[in-house]
Design goal:
heterodimer; A: 314 residues; alpha/beta; globular; B: two-stranded antiparallel ribbon; 12 helices; 7 strands
Chain lengths: 314, 333
């Protein structure tokens, strides 16, 4: 899909496409879903490899345990559902059946955050990053676009251990399509340099942060934008280096400001380089029905909203 | 993963030296060589073709040793779950000494049969069976639940012979179903066993897993329900009755066998029938006595999750010593 010449694709679609690409290379890769294959896009994999796609029905708790068991037989299961059910409903199964034994299970959670849109608050998971990052040994990633999502899925299959990857429902612009793009678990990237303020963003909010930085630049405010795809383990070095230069940070995420990227950044700065931080995200409220674009605007997570918040902060 | 057994060595000796505080154990340390590994020449565990089976008398002796291990461990820990460990002691013994294809010297053997203790709080029973089968020394059982011991309150993957971490009820059966499916997808012939409590099956996840296993016709999966009729808050049919257990599993497309959990002939017949059952998983409903083998613990919910004090410990061990003497007489007789 293209809008104003910019290619747009939902990261859930990147997920389904990449699973299919990796299947030939990794014969032990299997995909589990809970009656949402069409929505999570694991249907792309299922069409090509029906024998390696296990639909567990609407039973996420069991699905997590089945994935744990499969991994103990040497397979690499990717478990999919909406973030609400993968991280929320099945939290304790992820914690005790996957996290505690540190099994090689990958959780691909789609429909995260408010950009779920019209389905409303019951399906808009703004808590998954917080939940998953409390589990010892769990890698937590939140890719910002198609390029990063594909790289994250590949990195996850190459990594031995539990991984949670967060994908979105809505089509988002491709922002990382450049020849020198490099992805590594646990490494962030400075996507725009600046000296006045550090904007740390994850997922689809990286695009908003870049847009906000452009608006600020027009007013002579030089914002540095750091893209954090891996929220755990956090690339503390890149955040510390940037904040030592700018003296302050704004965090942006399509997630609660409690326990997510903002909290992770604060944990790091409190301990190693205390500096003022403003956390943008869902301010301890549930979402609501509406289009993704309307919701992102209403909750101040589009470029304009981030721009305004940064200005206030400065 | 390492092929060898890290708990056979000097590190273990140090651990035991640090942690053993039971006077009983100091008095009576059993041999370093695990018992029961090669009692029958040419015996191949789990092989239906094997003519020679372990005799019921030998199994009873092992089960009594397992029960002693449970009591020693829980007494030393001053905590743990003796009641459900004792009710399942004969099932543990039958699985580890006769039914399952396993190798204590190679706990990670690729085509071994798998066991998941879904009712993970009865870890003392599993540990006592593993130790007596030779996966790690029986003297280590008294380190149960102690800081620094590998014998954690509930099973985890750092314990030789343990195939899945468990303890949060309802989860083990899903992992077992996943292992059974993995075996099928990779054309492996090993079987997967999982033991559930009758209270545990009140967890909804158990029925998600049962639906999955029945629908996928996982005939390499054998679910055992330890039906001792008691859970922490009382008799299971007073708390939130899961009865009829057999009819429920039948409705989920399982082949169901009701069996006396303390009768080795019955257990042998049931597990053999399970192995021969094709196209559907088997559920063995094992009718058991909670606290079996220790007079004052039998059929008493009080001993679900409580350790005996020193006097109670002495009585329990006297009960089991008496059983041991009776079994010895049977051998002579």
């Amino acid at each position: 899909m293209a809008e104003n010449g910019i290619r747009k694709i939902a990261t859930r679609e990147s997920y389904g496409n990449t699973l299919k690409e990796l299947a030939a290379e990794y014969p032990q890769l299997v995909v589990l879903d809970a009656d949402l294959a069409a929505a999570t896009k694991t249907s792309i994999f299922r069409k090509a490899y029906p024998d390696r796609h296990i639909d567990c029905g609407i039973a996420e708790a069991n699905m997590m345990g089945v994935a744990a068991g499969l991994s103990l037989t040497g397979m690499i299961p990717f478990v999919s559902s909406f973030a609400m059910f993968a991280a929320g409903r099945a939290f304790e199964q992820v914690r005790n059946s996957i996290g505690y034994p540190h099994l090689n299970v990958k959780i691909g959670a789609t429909h995260a955050g408010i950009t779920v849109g019209e389905d409303g608050a019951s399906h808009q998971c703004n808590e998954d990053i917080a939940l998953m990052r409390t589990i010892p040994g769990m890698v937590v990633m939140c890719p910002s676009d198609d390029v990063e999502a594909r790289a994250a899925v590949r990195a996850a299959v190459e990594y031995n251990g539990p991984v949670y990857i967060r994908f979105g429902r809505a089509a988002v612009p491709v922002i990382n399509d450049r020849p020198d793009y490099h992805f590594e678990i646990g490494k962030g990237a400075v996507v725009k340099e600046g000296t006045d303020v550090t904007i740390v963003a994850t997922g689809i909010c990286v695009d908003s942060a870049l847009g906000a930085a452009e608006l600020l630049e027009a007013e002579g405010i030089h914002a540095e934008v750091v893209n954090i795809c891996t929220i755990k383990p956090l690339d503390e070095e890149i955040i510390l280096n940037s904040v030592k230069k700018t003296g302050k940070a704004v965090t942006v995420e399509e997630h609660s400001v409690i326990g997510g990227l903002g909290s992770a950044v604060c944990d790091c700065l409190c301990a190693k380089y205390p500096a003022p931080v403003k956390k943008l995200g869902m301010q301890d409220v549930f979402g609501e029905s509406g289009s993704a674009a309307e919701l992102v605007h209403k909750y101040g997570l589009d470029a304009e909203g981030v721009y305004k918040s940064v200005k206030e902060f400065l | 993963m390492t092929k060898g057994n890290p708990y056979h060595g000097t590190e273990r000796v140090k651990l035991v030296a640090n942690l053993t505080n039971s006077p009983w154990t100091k008095r009576k340390i059993r041999g370093m060589i695990p018992t029961g590994c090669c009692l029958v020449a040419g015996y191949a565990p789990g092989s239906p073709e094997t003519e020679e089976k372990m005799t019921n008398l030998e199994l009873k002796k092992h089960a009594n040793d397992v029960r002693k291990g449970i009591i020693e461990g829980v007494h030393s820990a001053k905590a743990g779950h003796p009641g459900g460990s004792l009710s399942a002691a004969d099932v543990f013994t039958f699985l580890y000494f006769e039914e399952m294809n396993i190798d204590p010297e190679n706990p990670q053997m690729e085509d071994r049969d798998r066991f998941v203790l879904s009712k993970g709080h009865t870890a003392p029973g599993l540990y006592a069976a593993l130790a007596n089968r030779g996966f790690f020394p029986v003297e280590d059982l008294v380190t149960l639940r102690k800081l620094g011991s590998y014998l954690q309150g509930h099973p985890n993957l750092h314990i030789p012979g343990v195939d899945m971490a468990s303890g949060s009820l309802g989860q083990g059966i899903s992992a077992a179903a996943g292992m059974a499916l993995g075996a099928k997808m990779q054309n492996r012939t090993y079987r997967v066993y999982t033991l559930l409590g009758d209270g545990e099956i009140e967890e909804g996840q158990v029925w998600e897993a049962a639906m999955f296993a029945g629908f996928r016709r996982l005939d390499n999966l054998c679910v055992i329900v330890d039906n001792n009729n008691l859970q922490i808050d009382g008799p299971i049919d007073h708390v939130c009755s899961p009865y009829p257990i057999d009819k429920k599993f039948e409705a989920f497309n399982f082949h169901v066998i009701n069996v006396d959990a303390h009768d080795f002939d019955a257990l042998r017949a049931a597990f053999s029938e399970a192995r021969r059952t094709k196209g559907m998983p088997t559920c063995i409903v094992a009718h058991s006595l909670k606290g079996k083998g220790v007079s004052y613990m039998e059929n008493s919910v009080d001993w679900h999750g409580k350790a005996p004090n020193d006097e109670e410990f002495a009585v329990a061990m006297a009960d089991l010593d008496r059983t041991e003497r009776e079994l010895a007489k049977e051998v002579e007789g």
